[in-house]
Amino acid sequence: MDISAVNALPYEDFVNLFGNVVEKCPLVAAAVWTKRPFVSLSLLEAAINEFIDALPEAGKEGILRCHPDLAGRDLQSGTLSPDSREEQARAGMDALSSAEASRVARLNEEYKQRFGFPFVICVRLNDKANIVRELSERCLNTRAAESARGIEEVKKILRLRLQALVLPDAPHKL
Amino acid sequence: MDISAVNALPYEDFVNLFGNVVEKCPLVAAAVWTKRPFVSLSLLEAAINEFIDALPEAGKEGILRCHPDLAGRDLQSGTLSPDSREEQARAGMDALSSAEASRVARLNEEYKQRFGFPFVICVRLNDKANIVRELSERCLNTRAAESARGIEEVKKILRLRLQALVLPDAPHKL
């Protein structure tokens, strides 16, 4: 689908298509529909980022809280969103050794206890070792730093999810 | 559950419990968890309303766009949220005559074409005749008036959904 086809979508189809580019937050896509038409995929992405940036701090934390734990309960019980399932599997988070799984579960709990939201990372841009190291290191940050960092990761995730749904922008003619 | 039990919930349980008090917008409950503890159910409700009020206009329209049509496709195909299904059935929206169903479908389309979001009404506070009359009359409003009116209805719906989940506040001692 190219951006002109996106611009022609009624809101229901738009929300169905883009409702999970921010995990479990169809409200974000539903809000951004108001801003159509989009000149390019980049500007659709920018509109989504702008909506997120305009949320109060609690709203940003709310976005993080809509994310599942990495290698957590939802992965084990098969209740991840299809997007998350594919992303976590691709990074090998569904095939941790028993020792790795215990370590990740312990670090996830520590992180959530400390910050009141889950550890969010764009798993497509990281391998398993890197993810576990980040989880361990980011537990030591401040809450404000982690909220900001989590939202940065949300933006990386939504960029890749958008790119899987919309054809790339044509290069500018010279 | 009373308000002190609500205040003791980890965010995951809080979002599971209250994630649909605003239809398909778990982000709202997930954001409001930041504001706990809540002294009373009324103040939990106030925190949710405050979060909604602070959204930009596009965000309010986004909330409306997360709602299904009344007596629409989701009702017919069984894909309504359990909350909506029960509410629509109680108002008799699942048992329209063929003529009523056609009229509602036509008015829903007219409304959505005009405003870019669906007609939202607290069906628990209205009977079938009243709902159809409101749908017909509200089609004539301005977009700004209907966005504001839709959000008022969202607040009535969330109040009743909250009351179904949390025990009422104790009356003040004299």
Automatic annotation (TrEMBL), chains A, B:
Pathway: Purine metabolism; urate degradation; (S)-allantoin from urate: step 3/3. It comes from the Eukaryota. Its EC number is 4.1.1.97. GO terms for biological process: allantoin metabolic process; purine nucleobase metabolic process; urate catabolic process. One of its GO terms (molecular function) is 2-oxo-4-hydroxy-4-carboxy-5-ureidoimidazoline decarboxylase activity. The keyword Protein transport does not apply. Its main location: other. It is found in: Peroxisome. It catalyses: 5-hydroxy-2-oxo-4-ureido-2,5-dihydro-1H-imidazole-5-carboxylate + H(+) = (S)-allantoin + CO2. The keyword Lyase applies. InterPro entries: OHCU_decarboxylase, OHCU_decarboxylase-1, OHCU_decarboxylase_sf. Pfam families: OHCU_decarbox (PF09349). This is 2-oxo-4-hydroxy-4-carboxy-5-ureidoimidazoline decarboxylase.
